Amino acid sequence: MAKKNSSETEDRKDDHIRIIQEKDVETTGTGFEDVQLVHEALPEFHHDDIDLSVDFLGSELAAPIVIESMTGGHPNTTKINRALAAGAAETGIAMGVGSQRAGLELDDEDLLESYTVVRDAAPDAFIYGNIGAAQLREYETAMVERAVEMIDADALAVHLNFLQEAVQPEGDINAEGCLAAIERVSSELSVPIVVKETGNGIAGGTAKSLTQAGVDAIDVAGKGGTTWSGIEAYRAAAVNASRQERVGTLFRSWGVPTAVSTLECAREHDCVIASGGVRTGLDIAKAIALGAQAGGLAKPFLKPATQGVDAVVERVEDLIAELQTAMFVTGSQNVAELQNADYVLLGDTREYVTQRRD
Question: Where is Mg(2+) annotated to bind (predicted)?
């Protein structure tokens, strides 16, 4: 198996974090603005009796919140992952690491620590690993197990990022055989498999194929948050790759809106994580009402992670307070009741759903 130059791999990871922090990498259009939860004026329970806990892939989370996969693979990211993991442990939520390809293919102890630090900082938290679908096709199951062992992972995410790869100057654009690889690993790996997009959403037909392949959860990562096409356009511009820059900019807002993707995936699978432009506890509440089991956020945790564990915990507690309020005023005493809360679908999202062809 061909290995990439270590400096290229590490520099790309560092580029991503720097661009996210410094550039405009946000898109709009999650569809959550078109989801209105119906107000319950008489909840008939005490606010303090709201139960946020949820069963998630065989473990119990204190709240239906996931710190989405962000980073790892560069020594500069070790501090970030340590803070995220410790914050997840303190608040009882889940956390994923970024792609572990660098940790598997490059012999570098400092780089490896950027991943292993998460379990050191959070021995009891729900932590999941991360491998790209294109790499999954190349790896034997034993190699994938190494990613699990690296961080003593409770699950493994397989990310789908083919738009990003198509824009990336050094991208891997071979998508052949990935579904078969996902099915193979889903049946052979020691931990549950979560298949996740990276900002462009998963449509119902794909969700059906993934469900039939045996995946344990689907993370929609829909349109409306961080645009990896846009990030790669910035990287392409920096190396004068004008064609990739133009393509990345053109497809900056491409994808299935998060609200629509959540609806479609929830029809096909009973464990859906809604991410992609999720920014508040109210967004999480809307996603759960649409059928999700949890809501995931990435970029909103990046700045707090650079500030330390306390800032990460404060961000989680803000989300919890917002989610609790939404549950209180929809008469939802627990997450199961929130999944059955009344809502109205309006505007462009309603039009999208209505006009969507199976």
Answer: 165
The number of C-alpha atoms within 13 Å of 97 and in the hemisphere containing its C-beta is 40
The string of pLDDT tens digits covering residues 22-45 is 888 899 999 999 999 999 999 999
pLDDT exceeds 70 at position 3? no
Question: How far is Cα 355 from Cα 29, in angstroms, rounded to an integer?
Answer: 17
143: number of Cβ within 10 Å: 15
Q: Say if residue 130 carries a ligand binding annotation.
A: yes
Q: Please check the confidence at residue 4 and state whether its pLDDT lies above 80.
A: no
Residue 145 DSSP SS3? helix
Residue 278 is labelled as binding a ligand: yes
Topology adopted by domain 28-356: TIM Barrel (3.20.20)
- Residue 299, marked binder: yes
Q: Are 72 and 13 in contact (CB under 8 A)?
A: yes
What is the residue extent of each domain of the chain? Answer: 28-356
Q: Which residues does 330 contact at the CB level (< 8 Å), separation at least 6? A: 37, 38, 39, 40, 285, 289, 338, 341, 342
E strand spans, the chain: 35-37, 54-56, 59-61, 65-67, 94-96, 126-132, 155-160, 193-197, 217-219, 272-275, 294-297, 343-345
Please answer whether residues 73 and 99 qualify as being in contact, where contact means their C-beta atoms are separated by less than 8 angstroms.
yes
User: Annotated binding residue at 71?
Assistant: yes
Tokens coding 206? 């794909």
69 known member of a binding site:
yes
Q: Rounded distance, CA 315 to CA 317, Å?
A: 5
Nearest to residue 283, comparing CAs of 200, 334, 228, 343? 343
